[in-house]
Amino acid sequence: MFDDKPRWNRRMARYMKKRLAELRLDEVSDPRDARGLRWRLPVVLSTLVVAMMAGAKSLLDVERLTTEISAPLLRLLSIPRRLPDTTARNILCGLDPTQIRARLYAEVRAAHRRKALEPQDLPFGVATMDGKGTALPSCDDLYAQRQTAAGPLVGVLRTMTAALVSSRAKPCLDASPIPALTNEMGHFPTALDELCAAYGHLDLFRLLTYDSGACSRANAAYVRSKRLDYLFALKGTQPTLETEAKRLLAGRAPGHADAWSEDVRNGHVVVRRVYLTEEMAGYDDWDHLATVLRVESETRDARGHRIAHDERYFIASLARHELRDAQWLTVTRLHWGVENNVHNTLDTVFMEDDHPWIEADPKGALIVALLRRLAFNLMLFFRCVTQRSEDRRAMPWAHLVHAVWLALVRTAADDLRSTPVRATTVAPA
C-alpha cells in the first residue's frame, strides 16, 4: 500500500527512532564484563525489537536482517554491523526479566503522556488479564513448568497478560511470569499488585476483567481492595452463583434483552444481546457483587438460518447505573480483547508459539517474549494511533510487517530528508 513511497519510509524510520528512545533501553543492567565488549546492550536490544517488527522468526533471521538494512537506516538506528545470532542469544539469556518488563511500563507511560490511551466509547478505562502458555523442550521449574513425566521433555512458559482494551490500540500493559509452582488463580493477586504498582498513579483503568480461571471470592475481594471494580466470567467453578444467575436470566427471551448489537462477518450476521440483573447483589456472601450479566451470541447465514449460538455469564462489582446498557455489552466484548488482539496476534503474526527463538533456556525465552511485546506495542501504536485514516488503521498485520521490512531495506538517504515546504502565494486583497 505504501511500500515504495519515500514519505512512508521516512515516516516509519523516524517513528522507530523516536519510539525506541522512549523505551529507555539504556536503563537495563548489562550482566557482561565491561572489558572487551563489542556490542552495547541498548543497541542489541533495540536491534532485536526492530527485527521483531520486521517479522524476524529467529535470531538467525535477525543476523540476516542486519546485513540487509540500508546504510542510512543502520546509521539512524545506531546499528554498527551484523549482529551474530550467538552473541544475541548469550546476551538475552543473562538479562533480568524484571528490567525488561520495566521497559514495557516505560513504553505505556510514554503513550499515556501522548494521550494515546484514552478510553473509546466508555466513561473509564478497562483492563483485561488472561494467561498464556508457550511450550518449550526444556524446563527449570521456575519460569517453565514440566508437563511430562515420561517421554520427551515438555515445559510450559506461562505468563499472565494484561491489556488496556478500552483504548483504540489495546496495548499490552504487562506480561507477568507465572511461577511453576502455582497457576492463574494463585498468581492473580501478585500480577494485580505488579500492574497497580506500575500504573496505579496514572488512573489508566477502573474496571478489571478476567475469565473464569481467576473467578473466586478471594480474588474479587482483592480487586476491590485496590479500589477497582471487577468483571469475571462465570462458569462451573462457581456453581452456586452460576445456578442462580441462570435461574434469573436464562429464561429471558430475545425481545427482552437490555441491549443488542448486530455485525456482519464473512457474509454472516452476528447478533449479540445482553441481559442484566441486580437481584443477586451481595449473593452468597459476595458482599461486593452488584450486577450479573448474560451475553447471548447468535450467528445467522444469508438466508437467516441460525448456524451458531452461544451464551456466557458474567459477574461484576460495578453497579448497573455506572454504564449504559449498550456499554455493558461493549465491555463484555472488550473482555476478549486480550485473547483476540494480543495473544492471537502474537501467535499468528509474530509466530510466538512456533518460534520462541530460544528453546533450551526458559529465562531466555521469557526475555524474548517480553521484547516481542515491546515490538507488538510499537506496531499497535503506529497502526492505530499514528495513522489517521481508517483505511490505514485497518491495514492487515501481514502487510504492516512487510512494509516495516521494506522500509528497513529500501530507505535511501534522500528518503530521510524532510520534504521542502512549498512556498505559498497570497492573492492581493
Account of the protein in words:
The protein is an alpha+beta fold. 40% of the residues lie in helices and 18% in strands. It contains 14 helices and ten strands. Strands 1, 2, 3, 4, 5, 6, 7, 8, 9 and 10 form a ten-stranded mixed beta sheet that branches. Helix 2 crosses helix 12. The two termini are 42 Å apart.
Layout: helices, strands, pairs:
Layout: H1 6-22, H2 41-53, H3 59-68, H4 71-76, H5 85-93, H6 97-113, E1 126-136, E2 144-146, E3 155-164, E4 172-177, H7 184-199, E5 207-210, H8 217-225, E6 229-234, H9 239-249, E7 259-265, E8 268-277, E9 291-300, E10 306-316, H10 325-334, H11 337-348, H12 362-386, H13 390-393, H14 397-410
Parallel strand pairs: 1-5, 5-6
Antiparallel strand pairs: 1-3, 2-3, 3-4, 6-10, 7-8, 8-9, 9-10
Helix pairs in contact: 1-14, 2-3, 2-12, 3-5, 6-12
In short:
The protein has 429 residues and is an alpha+beta fold. Helix content is 40%, strand content 18%.
Estimate what percentage of residues fall within beta strands. 15-25%
Give a short account of the largest sheet: 10 strands, mixed
Helix percent reads 40-55%
Q: Which overall shape is indicated by the principal axes computed on the Cα atoms?
A: globular
Unreliable residue runs: 419-429
Structural class, from helix and strand content? alpha+beta
Strand elements, count: 10
Average pLDDT, rounded to a whole number, is 91
Helical segment count:
14
What is the N-to-C order of secondary-structure elements (H for helix, E for strand)?
Answer: HHHHHHEEEEHEHEHEEEEHHHHH
Query: Alpha-carbon distance between the termini?
Result: 42 Å
- What gyration radius follows from the Cα positions, in whole Å? 24 Å
